[in-house]
């Protein structure tokens, strides 16, 4: 068939593919998004929820850059909560239960209305590569699509294998065919793959559940939006419910543990550590008399209920027996059994910081193919891959976020430098600079980039600038306004607010602010004031690290002559020949002490070279 040509071709219309496609098209490139089915675009294969700890941070950052996940979550959300509201601002994060069907339809409509974006239904079976440069993709129907850059976002479809008990069948998702040829094509390019496993809980018919037994979980009275571009007032439309397993449940699971593919050895891939199956919980946490789960609606116009916390690969009959042991679920009907799925992923250490593969120029990978789990991690990677693919086509500098700039930077750096052995999930604890990576300042950190790339409209950016002006005005007012609280020393309102037991409402007792602030803006002001001392220390530390990372490693450097450096470290330095300490830190097999050892030798100019241990003049070239 006749070839069609685009600037960027995106394979897979999950959350990574959708963000990549919209980003490329909004940067004035022609883009083609290829999906197996129009009906499953942006399908929420597991829980129809967006956000959570660290994941909510990612969605805010995606939004600040001009991505679309946050807007759609706000538009289709039916239950909103700000997690960790009672804790510090750095670990607070929004989460929303979305209407699964409506999210998918809203995404499809948005894609169809994006200028420069073509959606094509087909199955990619091959990659066209010439002289280590991607040229396009081949589809199973004979169609050839040429492209200057290709972004692969196949999710769990690469050699996907579903397990329910001791039965298994090839599938990329329930009742959808796997992608076998594409996995083979990827391996032929020299990219190393490995097996991972994930799973999803059963879906129940809400009409058959006795809801009176479970504890209702309401949403927030004033829901916090994901997108700062959302103008409508958010509304909670459903309740989620909390329940628990019991010892009878655990006895059923232990009775049939030999029927679990996870424990019988049928599953080779490693599963997600932080989202274990119920059989994993019972085995690994046998001292717990019960485990909690949540009953979460999948939408407003469906009776499907997602049982969050009961992921399993046990047989259908066992799943049925499990429900019979739980009050309130004894008579519930299973609409779809829980299952586990194994799939191929690519070792992400084979990627550049732009998510471009090292072996093939112009080929990018994003989402679960890189070993991550979660819609949010996938969407963030897709957005970055889309931006960088366009920048490369235009021969511009790549867009790489540092770990101190964004959780997106933490995510990608972890993947490409540390790799993964199990599905990767982002946590706030993974970010060493998390005090400065809050949801309330995501736009301050990243919106300028979104506007530069053309992903944020001028209207949205002007709105952001006005917000920044309001915040600056209030912070300056707090700095200069003096008060005498509790008839003690005269201090500024800023110093007063810095006290642990003082909130913004206490400050307002001394008079109104020069600007009216939204609840979101108030959270930002409070966080900036209370964290100010820590943030200054963090800035100093970041500057020190950047200086260290920028230190050049002299030509002819011989790591083998540095005492205490391990063999693996020496071999990797010799093999990759890093040009700076920053590049050396990303090499596999080097510990932080190895890097510090090299840094000390270079900074003191006691640099071994060849067989000589004499001093060497360092040049900052």
Question: Tags for this entry?
Answer:
single chain, 621 residues, alpha+beta, 20 helices, globular
Helix content: 25-40%
Q: Describe the largest sheet.
A: 9 strands, antiparallel
Question: How would you sum up the global shape?
Answer: globular
- The secondary-structure class comes to alpha+beta
Radius of gyration: 26 Å
* Binned strand content: 15-25%
**What ranges have pLDDT less than 50 throughout 5 or more consecutive residues?**
606-621
Mean pLDDT: 92
**Separation, N- and C-terminal Cα atoms:** 52 Å
SS field, number of helical segments: 20
The number of distinct β-strands equals 21
Summed up, what is this model?
The chain is of the alpha+beta class and 621 residues long. Helices cover 34% and strands 19% of the residues.
């Amino acid at each position: 068939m006749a070839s069609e040509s685009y600037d960027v071709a995106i394979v897979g219309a999950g959350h990574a593919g959708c963000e990549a496609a919209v980003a490329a098209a909004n940067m004035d490139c022609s883009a083609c998004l290829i999906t197996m089915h129009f009906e499953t675009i942006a399908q929420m294969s597991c829980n129809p929820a967006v956000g959570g700890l660290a994941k909510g941070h990612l969605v805010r950052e995606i939004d600040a850059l001009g991505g679309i996940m946050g807007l759609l979550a706000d538009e289709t959300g039916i239950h909103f909560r700000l997690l960790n509201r009672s804790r510090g601002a750095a670990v607070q994060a929004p989460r929303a239960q979305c209407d699964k069907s409506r999210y998918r339809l809203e995404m499809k409509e948005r894609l169809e209305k994006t200028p420069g974006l073509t959606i094509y239904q087909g199955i990619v079976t091959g990659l066209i590569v010439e002289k280590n440069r991607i040229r396009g993709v081949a589809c199973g129907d004979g169609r050839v699509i040429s492209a200057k850059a290709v972004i692969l976002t196949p999710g769990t479809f690469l050699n996907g294998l579903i397990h329910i008990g001791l039965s298994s069948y090839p599938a990329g998702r329930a009742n959808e065919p796997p992608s076998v040829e594409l996995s083979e094509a990827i391996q032929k390019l020299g990219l190393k793959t490995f097996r991972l496993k994930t799973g999803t809980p059963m879906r129940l018919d809400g009409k058959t559940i006795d809801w009176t037994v479970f504890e209702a979980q309401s949403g927030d009275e004033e829901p916090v939006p994901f997108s700062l571009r959302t103008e409508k007032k958010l509304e909670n439309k459903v309740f989620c419910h909390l329940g628990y397993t019991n010892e009878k449940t655990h006895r059923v699971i232990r009775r049939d543990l030999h029927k679990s593919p996870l424990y019988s050895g049928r599953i080779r891939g490693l599963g997600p550590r932080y989202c274990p199956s119920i059989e994993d919980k019972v085995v690994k946490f046998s001292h717990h008399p019960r485990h909690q789960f949540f009953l979460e609606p999948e939408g407003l116009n469906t009776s499907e209920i997602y049982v969050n916390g009961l992921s399993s690969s046990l047989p259908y009959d066992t799943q049925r027996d499990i429900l019979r042991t739980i009050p309130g679920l004894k008579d519930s009907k299973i609409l779809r059994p829980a299952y586990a799925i194994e799939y191929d992923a690519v070792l992400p250490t084979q990627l550049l910081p732009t998510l471009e593969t090292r072996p093939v120029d112009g080929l990018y990978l994003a989402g679960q193919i890189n070993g991550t789990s979660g819609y949010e991690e996938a969407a963030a990677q897709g957005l970055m891959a889309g931006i960088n693919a366009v920048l490369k086509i235009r021969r511009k500098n790549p867009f790489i976020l540092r770990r101190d700039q964004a959780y997106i930077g933490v995510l990608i750096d972890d993947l490409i430098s540390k790799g993964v052995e199990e599905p990767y999930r982002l946590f706030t604890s993974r970010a060493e600079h998390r005090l400065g990576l809050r949801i309330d300042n995501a736009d301050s950190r990243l919106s300028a980039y979104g506007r530069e790339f053309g992903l944020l409209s001028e209207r949205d950016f002007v709105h952001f600038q006005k917000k920044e002006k309001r915040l600056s005005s209030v912070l300056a007012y707090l700095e200069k306004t003096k008060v005498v609280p509790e008839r003690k020393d005269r201090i500024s309102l800023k110093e007063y607010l810095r006290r642990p037991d003082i909130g913004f409402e206490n400050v307002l007792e001394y008079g109104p602010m020069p600007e009216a602030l939204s609840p979101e803006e108030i959270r930002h002001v409070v966080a900036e004031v209370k964290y100010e001392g820590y943030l200054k220390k963090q800035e100093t530390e970041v500057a020190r690290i950047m200086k260290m990372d920028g230190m050049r490693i002299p030509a002819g450097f011989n790591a083998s002559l540095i005492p205490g450096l391990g063999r693996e470290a020496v071999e990797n330095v010799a093999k990759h020949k890093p040009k700076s300490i920053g590049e050396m830190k990303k090499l596999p097999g080097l510990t932080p002490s190895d890097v510090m050892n090299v840094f000390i030798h270079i900074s003191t100019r006691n640099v071994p070279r060849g067989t000589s241990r004499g001093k060497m003049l360092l040049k900052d070239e």
